[in-house]
Amino acid sequence: MFQLRPPLSPEIIATLRIGDVVLLSGTIYTARDAAHQRLADAARAGHSLPLNVAGQIIYYVGPAPTPPGKIIGPAGPTTSGRVDVFTPPLLQLGLKGMIGKGKRSPLVRRALQQHCAVYFLLVGGAAALISEHIKEVAVVAYHDLGTEAIHRFEVEQLRLVVGNDCHGGDLFEQGQAAFQQAV
Prior knowledge:
- The protein starts with a strand and ends with a helix.
- It has one domain (2-182): Fe-S hydro-lyase, tartrate dehydratase beta-type, catalytic domain (fumarase), CATH 3.20.130.
- It has helices at 10-15, 33-44, 87-92, 106-114, 127-131, 171-182; strands at residues 2-4, 21-30, 57-59, 97-100, 118-121, 134-141, 150-164.
- The chain is α/β, with parallel strands linked by helices.
- The protein is globular and about 50 Å long.
């Protein structure tokens, strides 16, 4: 099991392989579809982004409303494929990790290899449990997007699994191949 704290370096990322379990602590950022479109559009136009993504991790989440006495509501992952088209420009700017659920496109998998980055998986349906690992929350950009604004999370011991590594490994393909052999 790996203990990680962003920012992530290429040397650390190169040690990770699909299926590895990671405990993540430190600062991560959130972004969903609308925020990703704005970030990718700004990157393509050569404009500065509202945050420096170099070495950072983006979690694909739009937190639910915050209940009284809590710092955040349930915060489960959204389907990563929804932002695949916007991901390569951010990887080119130095983004090193993403957290979500579901399989990534061949475009993103190639970009992970090209830019030495990693995709982490979280289990969908565990939003309330995941939120227990989020210790601080602040909106840092695109306030007008509401729940889809970019947030800064301070997380503690958030348990992740490497779904795609920088070596071309794909946990989904490996699982499908193992199933086919077993049938």
